[in-house]
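--- STAGE predict ---
source: upstream dedup step, 1 unique chain passed
mode: sequence only
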Amino acid sequence: MEANVNWKIAKDVGIIDSSMNKTFYRKLMVLSGLGYTFDALSTAIIAFILPIVTNPFKLTGLESGVLGASALIGYLVGATFWGLVGDKFGRKNSIQYTLIIYTIFTLLSAFSMNFTQLTLLRIVAGFGVGGESAVIAPYFSEFIPKSIRGKYTGYVTGFFSFGFIAAAILGYFVVPIPVVGWRIATVIAALPVFYVIVFRFKLPESPRWLRLKGKDKEADAVLTIIHGSTELPKTIEGIDSDKYIERIFSSLERAKDKSKNKENSFKTIWSKKYIRRTSMLWILWFSTGFAYYGFFTFAPTLLVDLGYTIVTSLGVSLLSYIMQTPGYFSAAYIAEKIGRKALLAFFMLAGAVVAIALAYSRNFDSIIILYALMSFFLNGLFGGVYIYTPEQYPTEFRTSGMGYASSFARVGAIISPILFGTLILSIHFSGVFIMSFIIMLIGALAVIILGKETTSQDLEATSSPDIIGESA
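--- STAGE serialize ---
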């Protein structure tokens, strides 16, 4: 192996932080994060459209639930499909194509004339959204040194909150416009994505993925742009540099050999080496998806069920959406302070406590505060999940592993809106939040019992059972 490639790849693994190109990382963060903004906008806008289209489209409770979950149905398939594509054909190509699919079909959905058209078009748009969300976090984490990986990845997921706030603003000011408001809001949700698509063509491919595919020169060129030319220190973390790099590279070479053998990623993540973390992640993602999308899809409808007007319910929802931003960014900040496990367990348990409090609250002021807190903890939780998951799997199946896990979140996300929509007349406000409490409690226990800490570790070390000492 070429020496110059060695130290550059080693630097990319996170060994060297002293010459970080913060300008590049911030640009990458913004362009990656903006994709999440539009993903969230596409998903969240349906919560504000549902009350408006229910009468003209003559929706039943079940149809409302299906429409509310429509984008997530596409998301479920898209996350798995594009995760596999990202591992095989590259991260950059995947995230570009997913945005194009999202944009085209979101625009088309604005012209839907009935329930069937709107649902099908949102499913296809969700197919693009699912791929975007599954690939972005692994792609981004593969560039970032270990000392700032949690914080910066958390910042990227924080862009989700901007999409929800934008959806709430459109829902409050544009969607209520008679007849055409929801259509205008849908068009607005799609058009700005062209800006992101154009600028993303300038982003490089993941050097780790290039290295894995044997494209050392391309990886070297990318890392030269990012890091420049800095000499490798004689020792790293108290260990001789050559020995330290040799250990890291041995894991990358094993990954390359597995990739050449076309090892089945689904089979691998359920092998003895990864079954514990995969079980934990799937339970965590399911619990998060169930609580998160159930709450944000039906937040306005639940308040209407209590007797409040649509305008009042949308106003409360807007406040809860604004609280998403501090939720995400607080998680990003403390991810390096208290560790990933503690972060996830705390936000999950705190959300469960708020859910049970909401189940028995009837005072309007209390509901406003609890809605805001629920939003804060749910979004901090989702931020933590996106930080934690890419750290669990090695490069050869990082995006597919992320895709499978996030797909399972969409199983929960699909079930909860349909379940809430179907049962809301019988279980009402209290029942919805009692169910959320139980599911979130299960998620917290999974992290506490099965999760492993990954804070301040090299990305290859966090994902390789051979390095971190798990049984083979």
